Amino acid sequence: MSDLGMVIVGAGETGARAAVELRTAGWNGPITLIGKEPLAPYERPPLSKFTLISEEEPKPATILDEVRLSEHNIGWIPNNQVVGIDRVNHSVELSNGQQIRYERLLLATGAAPRKLTIEGSDTTGLLYLRTFADAVALRTRFQPGKHIAVIGAGFIGLEVAASARELGCSVTVIEVGPRILMRGVPEEIARIVEARHRMAGVRFKLGISIQGIMNTSEGHLITLADGTDIPCDTVVVGIGAIPETSLAAQSGLTIENGIYTDEYLATSDNDIFAAGDCCSFPHKLYGGRRIRLEAWRNAQDQGTHVAHNMLGASKPFVDIPWFWSDQYDQTLQVTGLPDSGVLTVCRHLSERDKLYFHLSGENRLVAASAVGLNAKIAKDIRLAEMLIHQNQAVLDPIALQNTEVKLKSLVNA
Amino acid sequence: MQELLQWVEACEADAIDEEDVIRFDHGDRTFAIYRTAKGSYYATDGYCTHEKFHLSEGLVMGTIIECPKHNGRFDYTTGAAKRTPVCVDLRTYPVKLEHNKVFIQI
Ligand SMILES: Cc1cc2nc3c(=O)[nH]c(=O)nc-3n(C[C@H](O)[C@H](O)[C@H](O)COP(=O)(O)OP(=O)(O)OC[C@H]3O[C@@H](n4cnc5c(N)ncnc54)[C@H](O)[C@@H]3O)c2cc1C
Ligand code: FES
Predict the structure, then answer these.
(1) Which residues form a coiled coil (chain A) (predicted)?
(2) Which of A168, A234, A235, B8 would you call most buried, defined as having the most Cβ atoms within 10 angstroms of its Cβ?
(3) For residue B2, what pLDDT band results from cuts at 50, 70 and 90?
(4) Looking at residue A141, what DSSP letter applies?
(5) Integer Cα distance of A205 and A190 in angstroms
(6) Is the CB of B85 inside 8 Å of chain A's CB atoms?
């Protein structure tokens, strides 16, 4: 390779992990990590949890501080957006006009909250949550006694609802779908999560759309399709995220539900890779099905993995998806792709700790999901992940339900 | 200041399954005690160095303990951090086996 450097667009979870791994894997040339945000790479998961409820002034949970960046000799350029890629000359252009040439380029641009648009409504002043600055803005509004409306009952909306309740706000969650957590978890788990929120005093408006939103002197007035008015101080919108593909699209790279990559996380240009929330890739263990994940460990795993392929390793990415969410004292974890199963069986670990296995038609384990106390479910989910990794092990549904049968005994059996 | 070390009885040797871990509390401190598949014993601090989650609820794989919360990993024989998000090593403690009981020096 020439003495051009490795350039990473996006200084988030994926970009940070890739930068460190490039060094660890022995790349001695320049590494440049370019980020739009002013902060050094930090963790996003606490933003809807600890950052909102902590008693002290919150600080970002930094992944790579300036000391570690310089230890690894990673050139970090904050506050700069990459605005163009010149694929012929192998260079990127920054918003400050600077041009940087690359040997290999990684797009780790993440995702951005989907914006709510309602015809004829004033949606200015609605809050979203993706960055540390967003979390600080929410935090200052979440005063005891305030009424918070959360639009969207996905993971982020529900975590925000839980945090707002813990801070003594009253909370209404509005969701157009028939139930909460439509994407990502089976109905059994969604029901348990909803019950926990209701117990905490959250009000739900499910299966109903919003007719309009008005700004008022106190805050906002939301009107539902059935005419119900919901006055509130603050509206937080959590209706999903859209992969950040604009730079890739404008550079002529293939886009398909995110930046299109092959199983090596290479885009339609062999010198440009994409990883994390921004990309879609085929998963071999799921028959080559194309998926795009918005999950923290995937961002780490892909960031770490792609570094090696940028250096010429060409190893397919086959890690099993894994996700967790914390709401109150309850955790839920999902591994694999539940919607690729046709049969679900439950292992009742206790009154409140439930583990579900999702099997394909041939009784292959394709996913597992669980809800309960972290201490009770985490190990089993991890073992289930190992079973999925074993070429989707064929398992006996009866044994899976039986708490006497140790999951560990099935691994490599 | 020099720490005063003492050997403390933690558990019966067979209280831990092979390739597994248990929690041991002593005073206001908490530890994780491991047994390898070959029957050797090790001890570390109880909590992960990332956040305050107890490693005894994690999964033991060979000489690796994986944290149950975010899947960070340590080599429990050395305490070395092995996988993100953990980057701070875990403290380890000497272990001895006497009369089928596990003692740790703390
Ligand atoms: C509030 C919240 C809570 C979450 N909680 C959980 C959880 O509990 N469990 C879980 O598994 N996952 C969780 N996630 C998801 C997880 O944080 C993401 O999957 C992960 O951050 C993705 O990492 P990434 O690097 O791909 O993208 P990001 O972290 O979004 O980083 C991308 C970065 O690229 C920058 N960027 C984009 N375009 C450009 C450009 N052209 N030039 C320069 N910079 C650019 C962006 O500003 C951003 O900083 C949560 C996410 C959020 C927002
Ligand atoms: S608490 Fe152990 S990895 Fe996060």
Answers:
(1) none
(2) A235
(3) low
(4) H
(5) 15
(6) yes
Which domains can be identified in chain A, with CATH numbers? 5-112+242-310 (3.50.50.60), 115-239 (3.50.50.60), 329-410 (3.30.390.30)
Element (H, E) at A203: strand A203-206
Both tokens assigned to A275: 């990883």
Best B71, B82, B83 member to test A by mutation, with max A CBs in 10 Å, is B71
Beta strand A220-224 pairing with B95-98: unpaired
Helix axes A13-24, A296-310, angle to 10 degrees: 40
- A296/B53 touch (CB, cutoff 8 Å), yes or no: no
Mutate to test the pocket of ligand 1, among A8, A20, A36, A304 (most ligand atoms within 8 A of CB): A36
* Segment A57-107, tens digit of pLDDT: 999 999 999 999 999 999 999 999 999 999 999 999 999 999 999 999 999
Q: What is the pLDDT of residues A168-179, one digit of tens each?
A: 999 999 999 999
- Chain A residues near residue B59 by CB distance under 8 angstroms: 379, 382-383
Contacts of A63 in chain B (CB under 8 A): 85
Q: What is the pLDDT of residues A378-388, one digit of tens each?
A: 999 999 999 99
Phi-psi region of A227 (alpha: psi -120 to 50; beta: other; left: phi over 0): left
Identify the nearest ligand to the CA of A296 by its number.
1
Domains of chain B and CATH, by start:
7-105 (2.102.10.10)
pTM of the model: 0.94
Ligand minimally distant from the alpha carbon of residue A43: 1
Which residues of chain B does A297 touch, with a Cβ-Cβ cutoff of 8 Å?
Answer: 70-71
ipTM comes to 0.84
Distance CA A60, CA A173 (A): 27
CA distance A224 to B94: 64
Query: CB atoms < 10 A from the CB of B17, how many?
Result: 13
Ligand 2 neighbours by CB, cut-off 6 Å: B 48, 50-51, 53, 67, 69-70, 72, 85-86
Cα-based angle A346, A351, A353 (whole degrees, multiple of 5): 60
A228 token code pair? 């119900």
Q: Which tokens hold the place of A42?
A: 């930090």
Q: Which residue of B has its CA nearest to A43?
A: B85
In this predicted structure, what is the pLDDT of residue A122?
82
Measured distance CA(A34)–CA(A32) in Å, rounded: 6
Query: Could you tell me if residue A7 is left (phi over 0), alpha (psi between -120 and 50 degrees) or otherwise beta?
Result: beta
Distance CA A160, CA A222 (A): 18
Chain A residues with beta carbon closer than 8 angstroms to that of B71: 297, 322, 382
First-to-last alpha carbon distance for chain B, in angstroms, is 15
Residue A207 token pair: 């299966």
Give the span between the Cα atoms of A34 and A100, in whole angstroms.
10
